[in-house]
Design a protein that fits this description.
2 domains, two-stranded antiparallel sheet, 272 residues, binds zinc ion
């Protein structure tokens, strides 16, 4: 029996811990430096290295039916899980089992820049979100030489995370453009803006939102889907939503716990 997308997703999740360990062994060996820039693109390097190391780990484990392919062009997703013996066509997704969006966050930065802002309707089939929290770490206690090290990681299906994000967006007073109620007054119905998030002030959160919902100073707000900002909420109701998702969905719980143990702003909202 060929693997299902769900089985492939489980294999990828299971082997990601080992892939991150192997990645850390590699960066310790090769990427030692003094200084260590932030905002230098190292996050992108780490995301890519995860894909390569996951492939190596899968091969070593004797899993030869699937492999991780790096998607070219400007697709949202970074990787596709493809059948090794099949033709792969990224346009039609022939030969693919699922896609993976990889995000990195550097622990040293004040604000996590990583965003997951795709709308629920843009998510097709089984998709995984992988988040890597990394930092420049000393190669040895007291030494100034550092290397990029993954400190913690999350990987799981994106849909439950989109649901959590959307629920908290609404709780903060945000909304999603409804059919027939587009701020641009589009004639076609439903128009292409349906589902676009607007914040409590009515400003668009994504560049693709309605033109008339542009903020005054910026093209779009870009708070929606910020991996840290998405946890912002108003009053006790936000915490209630967080706890509800924590108890009702295993993937949402794993993501909330990942963010909670790494970011005090999230962790203080969680039960002990
Ligand atoms: Zn519209």
């Amino acid at each position: 029996m060929p693997l299902t997308p769900e089985q492939a997703a489980d294999l990828i999740s299971e082997h990601t811990v080992r892939a991150c360990e192997a990645l850390n062994e590699f960066t310790f060996e090769v990427l030692q430096t003094r200084g260590g820039r932030i905002g230098s693109g190292m996050g992108g390097v780490i995301e890519a290295l995860w894909g390569f190391h996951l492939n190596a780990v899968l091969r070593k484990a004797g899993i030869d039916e699937i492999e991780i392919a790096w998607i070219y062009g400007h697709e949202y997703n970074d990787f596709a899980c493809v059948r090794r013996d099949a033709e792969w066509n990224p346009e039609t997704r022939e030969g693919e089992l699922l896609r993976i969006e990889a995000k990195s966050m550097v622990a040293a930065a004040e604000e996590a820049k990583a965003h997951f802002d795709r709308l629920e309707r843009e998510l097709k089939g089984m998709e995984l979100l992988a988040v890597f929290l990394w930092n420049w770490s000393p190669v040895q206690e007291g030494r100034a030489t550092v290397y990029p090290r993954i400190l913690d990681q999350f990987i799981g299906p994106v849909l439950p995370i989109a649901h959590l994000r959307d629920a908290l967006h609404i709780q903060r007073g945000g909304l999603f453009v409804q059919p027939g109620a587009c701020p641009d007054g589009c004639e076609e119905n439903p128009c292409r803006h349906v589902g676009e998030p607007l914040n409590a002030k009515g400003n668009r959160e994504r560049r693709t939102g309605p033109e008339r919902a542009r903020g005054q100073k910026v093209s779009h707000q870009a708070n929606f889907g910020g991996l840290l900002r998405m946890f912002g909420s108003r009053g006790v109701n936000g915490r209630r939503i967080l706890l509800q998702h924590l108890h009702e969905n295993g993937t949402a719980a794993a993501f909330i716990e990942f963010m909670g143990r790494n970011f005090h702003r999230v962790g203080r909202q969680l039960p002990d």
